[in-house]
Amino acid sequence: xxxxxxxxxxxxxxxxxxxxxxxxxxxxxxxxxxxxxxxxxxxxxxxxxxxxxxxxxxxxxxxxxxxxxxxxxxxxxxxxxxxxxxxxxxxxxxxxxxxxxxxxxxxxxxxxxxxxxxxxxxxxxxxxxxxxxxxxxxxxxxxxxxxxxxxxxxxxxxxxxxxxxxxxxxxxxxxxxxxxxxxxxxxxxxxxxxxxxxxxxxxxxxxxxxxxxxxxxxxxxxxxxxxxxxxxxxxxxxxxxxxxxxxxx
Length: 249
Ligand SMILES: [Fe+2]
What we know:
The chain is α/β, with parallel strands linked by helices. 21% of the residues lie in helices and 24% in strands. The chain is built from six helices and twelve strands. A six-stranded mixed β-sheet has the order 1-2-3-4-5-6, covered by helices on one side. Strands 7-8-9-10-11-12 form a six-stranded mixed β-sheet. A hairpin with a 5-residue loop joins strand 2 and strand 3. Residues 57, 59-60, 113, 130, 138 line the site of fe (ii) ion.
């Protein structure tokens, strides 16, 4: 399998490019609308064709590139079935593998950051979205988020994966790239070290995070698989404008 971890600096999002060497088909997990040209150039450079985009959840901090990529290169849109988005071509569900060429992803329903959130297990790697970040986790105060639910998703489902499974998160704000299940189970300050549910609840309730600047545009836009809102204020236009440089994650 061909594999790339691509970083989008505005929202600190990691997009994952998976390529099947036999069929030449590629999947992008969590592509960002501002990084489309960079992602397509990388796909072409590797001699692949984009077959699917696959989102982990309805993002609040950036717009998915799913619909624009579909319009540009005829890729299909895969997303959690439980979100019932009319723009989705394939709804993924837990217990039903998502296969593209030789790439076999096992969807894991991991609610708590959002109620429709999925992680994707691919052999010895897991794409954890915002459920589990390196030394952290996604916030639980919007989009039907719930700390108790996230605690169960991470400690019961993700932490029950084998120790050596590599953790690839949807974001990192400090330049870290990859972790492992054992590392997070032992060291994650919010959810690891055998933290109790009560401790986790207190941590999440005490974060005092600011209101997300783009959420009121991102969520409705992402429920349409990534549509730039027409009424975007000038200071938020950068969330729809193409990235100029090509930083690699
Ligand atoms: Fe998120």
